[in-house]
Amino acid sequence: MRSRALTFLALVCLLLAAALAWLWLTPQGQLREETHWSEPAALRIDYAALLPALPSSAPTDTQRFMALLDRPLFTQTRRPPLPPPPPKPVEAPPPPDNLSTARVQAIFDVPGEGGSVILLIAGKSQRVQVNTSIEGWTLKSIDGRKVSFVRRDQTRELQLQRAALTTYSGLGAPTAAGTGAARPTPPAAPAPAAAASTAAQLRAARAAAQAAQASQPPRATFGGSR
Asked: What is the phi/psi pair of residue 213, to 5°?
């Protein structure tokens, strides 16, 4: 039983080998042409064909966009907003008015030449001649102790102040009644104790000088001896 099965399997294997040989080999014993691999021809890929077709570019009517701008949809009046107002021009701050605190220190009035003044302005003493400008003001005229400055339609006058006497000059001050001048106060007399001390010092100095002269020996001099 077992030998029959082996014989049957051997016959099946022979039949399969014969079938493979018939498929691969020719009657001449060579490999068939179908068994040889041949290189396929190269194919060129068309990428443009892979892209989706785009719609044609037709001219656009821009009047529709202008209508939307002129009549906005979400505005109650369907009117465009008003343009913003132009910015206001920035005005420069006015220059400081240093002439309001200026003080006339001296006036040089030369007839026929106009003259000039010494002006203390902004903490500095400056000389200003007639018809010259300082801090935007022009010195127009000098009238005695009064000087006039002009700027456009403004006029300002400054007065030369008289010097104030703050120390005693030796002259008598007017009395309360105003009828005469008070006499200067005489110097105060020294105290008695101070006078006695000064006299004692003078006497002691004189006695010391006399004692020194007496202790020195006499010396010869031309014309006699002392």
From this structure: -70, -35
Please report which confidence band the pLDDT of residue 13 belongs to, taking 50, 70 and 90 as the band edges: very high
pLDDT tens digits for 69-124? 888 878 788 887 788 899 988 888 877 888 888 898 888 877 777 788 998 988 89
Read out DSSP for the chain?
Answer: -HHHHHHHHHHHHHHHHHHHHHHHB-TTS-B-GGGS--PPPP----HHHHSPPPPP-PPP-THHHHHHHHS-TT-TT--PPPPPPPPPPPPPPPPP-GGGG-EEEEEE--TTT--EEEEEETTEEEEEETT-EETTEEEEEEETTEEEEEETTEEEEEE-PPPP--S--SSPPBPSSSSSBPPPPPPPPPPHHHHHHHHHHHHHHHHHHHHHHHHSPP-EETTEE-
- What pTM did the predictor assign? 0.36
